[in-house]
């Protein structure tokens, strides 16, 4: 078993493990965001009730509650933006994994001697190339979406 094949296999496993760890971290953060959403929702409900029920409260108190409510809305919007970014990252990880699998299949066909390839092998190789191109285009779209989002936030 040549050294370069072992190196490629090891690097592929490392890249796959890295994607897996990143996916786990994203999943944990999405769960944290969901919990925070619920907490913000509860706080918002309390503040709205206070604002509606307290007609005799001083104006300073109402202003303070209103500011707190606006802060909660701002925080929720920030979390929604982060959640959107994480969902894009999840899509990107899925596409990376898909691209890696297609690369592996393509290598099998490309390593085969050209004279030994059947017409089915050539057709399968072409199909894999088409699928690979599709995955690369999808990743490119995600990158454009991220860039547009980043520019709009500036």
Q: Any overview of this molecule?
A:
The chain has helices at residues 3-53, 59-111, 119-153. The protein is mostly helical and 154 residues long. It has one domain. It is elongated, with a radius of gyration of 25 Å. The N and C termini lie far apart (52 Å). The mean pLDDT is 91.
The gist of it:
The protein is built from three helices and no strands. It has 154 residues and is an all-alpha fold.
Please tell me the total number of domains: 1
General shape: elongated
- What is the number of helical segments per DSSP (H or I, 4+ residues)? 3
Number of strands: 0
Helix content: over 70%
Taking the alpha carbons of the first and last residues, their distance comes to 52 Å
Structural class: mainly alpha
Share of residues in strands: under 5%
What are the low-pLDDT stretches, counting only 5+ consecutive residues below 50?
none
- Biggest pleated sheet: none
Mean pLDDT: 91
| Helix-strand topology string | HHH
Rg:
25 Å
Pfam families: bMERB_dom
Domain BMERB: 13-154
Subcellular location: Membrane
Keywords: Coiled coil, Membrane, Monooxygenase, Oxidoreductase
Task: Throw out a few tags for this protein.
single chain, about 150 residues, mainly alpha, monooxygenase
Write the layout of secondary structure elements.
Elements: H1 3-53, H2 59-111, H3 119-153
Helix pairs in contact: 1-2, 2-3
């Amino acid at each position: 078993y040549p050294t370069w094949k072992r190196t490629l296999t090891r690097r592929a496993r490392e890249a796959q493990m890295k994607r897996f760890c990143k996916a786990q971290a994203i999943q944990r953060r999405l769960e944290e965001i969901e919990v925070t959403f619920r907490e913000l929702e509860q706080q918002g409900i309390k503040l709205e009730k206070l604002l509606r029920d307290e007609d005799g409260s001083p104006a300073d108190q109402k202003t303070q509650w209103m500011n707190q409510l606006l802060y909660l809305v701002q925080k929720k919007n920030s979390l929604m933006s982060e959640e959107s970014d994480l969902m894009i990252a999840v899509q990107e990880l899925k596409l990376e994994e898909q691209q890696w699998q297609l690369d592996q299949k393509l290598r099998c066909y490309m390593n085969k001697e050209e004279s030994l390839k059947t017409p089915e092998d050539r057709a399968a190789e072409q199909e894999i190339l088409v699928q690979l191109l599709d995955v690369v285009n999808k990743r490119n779209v995600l990158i454009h979406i991220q860039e547009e989002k980043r520019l709009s936030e500036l």
